[in-house]
Amino acid sequence: MQQLAIFGGTFDPVHWGHLLIAETALHQVPVEQIIWVPSLNPPHKQAVAFQHRLEMLKLATKDNPAFTVSLIEVNTPETSYAINTLIDLAADYPNTHWYWIVGLDTFQTLPRWHRRHELTQMCDWLIAPRLLGGENIAQSELICKQVEHQLRNQSIIIDWQLLHIPLVGVSSSLIRQLIRERQSIRYLVAEPVRVYIAAHNLYAK
Ligand SMILES: Nc1ncnc2c1ncn2[C@@H]1O[C@H](COP(=O)(O)OP(=O)(O)OP(=O)(O)O)[C@@H](O)[C@H]1O
Ligand SMILES: O=C(O)c1ccc[n+]([C@@H]2O[C@H](COP(=O)([O-])O)[C@@H](O)[C@H]2O)c1
């Protein structure tokens, strides 16, 4: 049975934090591919046009043969729920053991995800620690255990592990903010992504 990991996100834009997370997953668990899934219509966010986010994702990931960008959510004209994405991907990749990669902030929302009882049984969870308010990696583990407990109260048992990455303060919102303030984003995103953003004048006021 092959092992694959899904990394879903808005990627508005993709940054070095995302790339570090995917690379770490690739080496920490025996997955052959990371399937990056840009959300067409994220349930909870406004974002620039899908085409721009997709192009930037392709530019950032093209050098790594173990990274694939999936257009699976393009077939979902309504809200992109994770359960639909996983069902559709499982049809394309039968006989697969699945992992789902999330940052700690996103993982905290899992107890409210659409059809979570089914989704949580279909994959294991790889969680990237993230600075949410001054905590350290040990506290990230505690937060994960709290989420696990909340899910158990809903009769949901999940299989999860923390990814061994250093805490990375970079976020897409930080990058958008820096651009609005006309500051440099060099070294926060892959260089072809920085060039693309400048060429298309993205995120400026
Ligand atoms: N620096 C980071 N550390 C850990 N996880 C991260 C980091 N950046 C993004 N993620 C995770 O990657 C996934 C996709 O993130 P997304 O594309 O929304 O980027 P973001 O930086 O969180 O965006 P925004 O700042 O607009 O909320 C989410 O699960 C998010 O938690
Ligand atoms: O399915 C859901 O109910 C759901 C609710 C919130 C987030 N998600 C997924 O979480 C991933 C990260 O989302 P985002 O927009 O925070 O980058 C992305 O793959 C979303 O589809 C999924």
From TrEMBL:
- SUPFAM superfamilies noted in UniProt: Nucleotidylyl transferase
The answer to whether the entry has keyword Magnesium is no
Class of enzymatic activity (EC top level): transferase
EC number(s) per UniProt? 2.7.7.18
Molecular functions per Gene Ontology: ATP binding; nicotinate-nucleotide adenylyltransferase activity
PANTHER family referenced in this protein's UniProt entry, alphabetically: NICOTINATE-NUCLEOTIDE ADENYLYLTRANSFERASE-RELATED, PHOSPHOPANTETHEINE ADENYLYLTRANSFERASE
Q: Which family does it belong to?
A: Belongs to the NadD family.
Q: How is this protein named in the record?
A: Probable nicotinate-nucleotide adenylyltransferase
